[in-house]
Amino acid sequence: MSETKGKGNYSTYQQKIIKRYYDNADSIGLQRLSELVGEIYLAEGKKKQDKAWEAADNAMQKLGVAASRIEHLLQKRDPTLVAELVRELTGKQD
Questions:
Q1: pTM of the model
Q2: What is the mean pLDDT of the segment spanning 25-31?
Q3: What's the CA gap between 68 and 47, in Å, rounded?
Q4: Could you report the per-residue pLDDT of 49-62, keeping only the tens digit for each?
């Protein structure tokens, strides 16, 4: 008998935490993509590289990067290009 929690079922403190998370979702996503650049560089073996690129794909989609650009980056599979994207997106947030 599990209850789904609606907004009214969270304490004021929990609601503030949830709000801060969503207010900072872009920064969190950008940080994750930045970490994935390092993971891609360091990944050994095709399976680990594929997993890191898949995670980068998901992160870029969540950040609202254009599908054509994501496709280009995934075809090139060059982590330097993803690092440049991170730098570009970081500049937009300032």
A1: 0.77
A2: 91
A3: 24
A4: 999 999 999 999 99
Share of the chain above pLDDT 70, in %: 88
Closest CA to 36 of 72, 62, 67, 69: 62
Return the exposure string of 36-59: e unless at least 16 CB atoms fall within 10 Å of the residue's CB, then b. Answer: bbebbeebeeeeebeebbebbbeb
> What is the token pair recorded at 65?
């990067």
Please answer whether residues 33 and 58 qualify as being in contact, where contact means their C-beta atoms are separated by less than 8 angstroms.
no
Phi-psi region of 66 (alpha: psi -120 to 50; beta: other; left: phi over 0): beta
Tokens of 76: 């090139």
Give the contacts of 33 (CB within 8 A, at least 6 positions apart). 56, 59, 60, 63, 82, 85, 86, 89
Which of these, 52, 2, 14, 11, lies nearest to 32 by C-alpha position? 52
Triad 70, 78, 59: Cα angle to 5°: 40
- Phi-psi domain of 64 (left: phi exceeds 0; alpha: psi -120 through 50; beta: other): left
